[in-house]
Structures are given as structure tokens and as C-alpha cells.
Amino acid sequence: GAVVSQHPSWVICKSGTSVKIECRSLDFQATTMFWYRQFPKQSLMLMATSNEGSKATYEQGVEKDKFLINHASLTLSTLTVTSAHPEDSSFYICSARAQSGVLLEAFFGQGTRLTVV
Amino acid sequence: RKEVEQDPGPFNVPEGATVAFNCTYSNSASQSFFWYRQDCRKEPKLLMSVYSSGNEDGRFTAQLNRASQYISLLIRDSKLSDSATYLCAVQSSARQLTFGSGTQLTVLP
Predict the structure, then answer these.
(1) According to the 3-state scheme, what is the secondary structure of chain B?
(2) With contacts defined as CB-CB under 8 Å, which chain A residues touch B46?
(3) Do A43 and B102 touch (CB under 8 A)?
(4) Cβ–Cβ < 8 Å for A111, A8
């Protein structure tokens, strides 16, 4: 299947600093990528839809000025958590859809575990 | 009401048992349905898609009931390695995937 690579896989940062997470589609082009956040023992919550060459679409309650998304090419989307706080500590996962037979299948990056201290 | 509702469990079953998970969805226009498996601290991985006619892959059987708006996953002859969290996912017309909260399964020796 298609491969989505995400890094870093984990990061620890100080409160108030910014962290950038990269998501790459390695063997296909992704005009749309999705960013999810998952808190312990909870489901994946969609944060935003990243659209190549245009602004991201954010879900209700997600601050677009805090979670900056850039999708400058067909294979790379980045999520920057600005002025991180301990409550931003979570597991962030990106996803891209690729055709797999008749279905449009979602492939996930490995996830980034962010800890803000 | 949540778009996708799933019993969080946990389900603790002995090896060899049969276990079933259900998931209900609220949007009758939902188009595609999936079951994902997520191991601790890892990304979700597609287990199987769910078709209207029902589909089977080895010990795993998935079914869709559009009238009642639910999907199910049946695991037969469960193995220790089946221990994981199982997430149902529903695709809307906007092509977004909405996930259930996940059901934690532990298969005991």
C-alpha cells in the first residue's frame, strides 16, 4: 500500500516554544491530507484538512493561529504547534488518501508524540 | 449525538473466544466504512473495509446494516496477538473519516 511518513516520531519541548511536524506521502501525490490528534484512551479527532496550494480547513474548536498548517507541495504537509502548552501534549497523526482498488484508502503516518514541559 | 459511537470496552476474553464489536453512525448518507486496528502508541492500520454484503477475511468478519446504521466486527478463535484497540471509521460525502472512540480488546492466555 501507499506510504505516509511522519516525523519526528516524538518530541519534547518547553512551554512557549513551537514545534513543526512533517507529513510526507512517499510514493503518491496527496492533494489533501488530514491531521488528527489523539489523547490517551480517546479516539482520533480530526483537527484540520490540509489542501495543497490553499488554506487548510479547520474543525470547530481548533485554533488556526495556534495550529499552523502548510501544504506547499503535493507530497508534504506540515503542522506547526505554536506557543505550545502542556495541554497540547498529545499524539498527532497525519493521514492521506490513496486509491487502493476501488476504494479510497486512508494511510497514516507513524504519529508524533508531543510532550510539552 | 456523536457521529460515530462505539462501545469503549474493555473486552477481556480468553484465547479462542469469539468477540464482536459494534459501531453505530448517525449520518445516513455515509458512504464507506472501515475497521482499523491500533496498537498502543502506534498509528491505526486498516484491518478491513466493510461492504454491504458483508465480508470475511480469515477469522475476521465485518458486516454493515444500513437500515439500522451500524457496522460490526466479529473475531473468531481470538489470539493473544489480537489484543489491540479496534476503531471503526465512517467516511462522509466530504471524504473525511470519522472515527469511533475505539474498543480495547485484551485476549488472555
Answers:
(1) CCCEEECCCCEEEECCCCEEEEEEECCCCCCEEEEEEECCCCCCEEEEEECCCCEEECCEEEEEECCCCEEEEEECCCCHHHCEEEEEEEECCCCCEEECCCEEEEEEC
(2) 1, 105-106
(3) yes
(4) no
DSSP line for A20-88:
EEEEEESSS--SEEEEEEE-TTS--EEEEEEETTS--EEPTT--TTTEEEEEEETTEEEEEE-S--GGG
pLDDT tens sequence across B15-40: 999 999 999 999 888 888 999 999 98
pLDDT computed for residue A27 by the predictor: 86
pLDDT along chain A (117 residues), means of 10: 89 97 91 90 88 89 94 92 96 86 79 96
* Strand pairing category for A10-13 and A112-116: parallel
Q: Do B97 and A106 touch (CB under 8 A)?
A: yes
Q: Which residues of B touch A95 (CB under 8 A)?
A: 97
Rounded to 5 degrees, what angle do the CA atoms A114, B98, A7 make?
30
Residues of A in contact with B97 (CB under 8 A): 34, 46, 95, 106
Locus of grid cell 507529513 = A23
Inter-chain CB proximity B44 and A109 less than 8 Å: no
Torsion on CA atoms B86, A44, A69, A102, rounded to nearest 10: 40
